[in-house]
Design a protein that fits this description.
Elements: E1 4-5, H1 11-15, E2 20-26, H2 31-46, E3 51-56, H3 61-66, E4 74-79, E5 82-88, H4 93-105, H5 108-115
Parallel strand pairs: 1-3, 2-3
Antiparallel strand pairs: 2-4, 4-5
């Protein structure tokens, strides 16, 4: 599955469009971002039920500001419209797969209950 390019206009719509959305905040000048890109793309081919999206922080500074992105690459995971993971750093493939497994395993009723307490 190909990755989706996110813009400020499309972000909220895409973030709510699937059970799980993974977002790579990146920039063309960023070496770690360029190394992480093929790992992210390969993972998108393995997980057709997940939306894999990319935000070019240079083209979309408002999104970087909205989410407090201070370092890139930053990987964000959204499950059922809730941000459940957001960490900077280029992950190797096994770690990205681990993040995906953990996001899939979340009990979202418990997550929502904790958010509301």
């Amino acid at each position: 599955m190909a990755t989706v390019t996110l813009t400020t206009d499309k972000f909220d719509e895409v973030a709510r469009s699937a059970d799980i959305v993974l977002i790579d905040f990146w920039a063309a000048w960023c070496g770690p971002c360029r190394r992480f890109a093929p790992v992210f793309e390969e993972s998108s081919d393995k997980h057709g039920d997940i939306v894999f999206a990319k935000v070019d922080t240079e083209a979309e500074p408002a999104l970087s500001e909205r989410f407090g992105i201070a370092s890139i690459p930053t990987l964000m995971a959204i499950r059922e419209g809730v941000i459940v993971y957001a960490e900077p750093g280029a992950l190797p493939a096994p770690m990205l797969e681990s993040v995906i497994e953990q996001v899939r395993a979340l009990d979202m009723a418990d997550v929502r209950a904790r958010m509301n307490s």
